[in-house]
Write a structure and sequence with these properties.
Number of helices: 1
CATH architecture of the domain at 15-76: Beta Barrel
Mean pLDDT: 87
Distance between the termini: 141 Å
Low-confidence stretches: none
Shape: rod-shaped
Strand content: 15-25%
Largest sheet: 5 strands, mixed, barrel
Strand order of the largest sheet: 1-2-3-5-4
Helix content: under 10%
Radius of gyration: 38 Å
Structural class: mainly beta
């Protein structure tokens, strides 16, 4: 009986499993070369495979009815576990009924080749040290409240246009190396203590009246 079974030929054709493990040999965009059972095959990265495969990755491959191979996902990556999320076109991350958080233990970079937009009801930016570098900056708003221990500004030119300015400081020192001009419709200065003006030459011109009033006036 056993001898008869040895001579039986199976009528069922042996087929390769639909899903197979493969090793990535090389990859360019969505086109890849994989090694399946020791045979090199051309394959494409499936649309749903967001993590970009790299050479030496152990991936999950499937063959469709036309004989084409597709990489469905990455099973194992030897060495560093770095990964790149790759999308072929525009991407929208939506958390319509909840919050969306991006947390990094080291650093986080946002880079855009075109325009970067941020829209929110309220924004909070907090860091120990910040660097802001612009070629051109336009800032608009209704109210601005700024609280700094010290401010150091270097500029080639500052041009400020405001309707009203109110400044309250404890000490105010201004140093102008070349020319200092103030033009006003009216000017009033109230000094509780000493008002001192020291110059090499002083010219005071009044079109009408000049009044100097004091308990003692010393000239010369």
């Amino acid at each position: 009986m056993m001898e008869n079974l040895a001579n039986v030929v199976s009528m069922v054709e042996e087929t390769e499993p639909a899903v197979q493990n493969a090793w990535v040999v090389s990859i360019s965009g969505k086109e890849a070369v994989v090694r399946i059972s020791g045979i090199t095959q051309q394959a494409k990265v499936a649309f749903s495979c967001m993590i970009q495969p790299i050479p030496e990755d152990l991936v999950l491959c499937v063959q469709n009815e036309t004989g084409a191979y597709f990489i469905l996902g990455i099973i194992e990556r030897p060495g560093d576990q770095n990964m790149t999320l790759s999308f072929p076109a525009d991407v929208t991350m939506l958390a319509k009924e909840g919050a969306l958080s991006m947390v990094s233990g080291k650093s986080m970079t946002l880079a855009s080749g075109g325009q970067l937009n941020c829209f929110s009801e309220k924004a909070v930016h907090k860091s120990r040290e910040a660097l802001v570098d612009f070629d051109q900056l336009t800032a608009r708003g209704t109210n601005l409240a700024a609280n700094f221990t010290s401010i150091f500004v270097i500029s080639r030119m500052i041009n400020t246009l405001v309707r009203q300015v109110i400044e309250k400081v404890k000490s105010y020192i201004r140093h102008t190396e070349d020319y200092d001009q103030v033009k006003a419709g009216q000017m009033t200065r109230n000094v509780d203590g000493l008002y001192s003006m020291d110059s090499k030459n002083t010219v005071m011109v009044s079109r009408k009246d000049t009044k100097i009033d004091g308990e003692h006036i010393f000239m010369g």
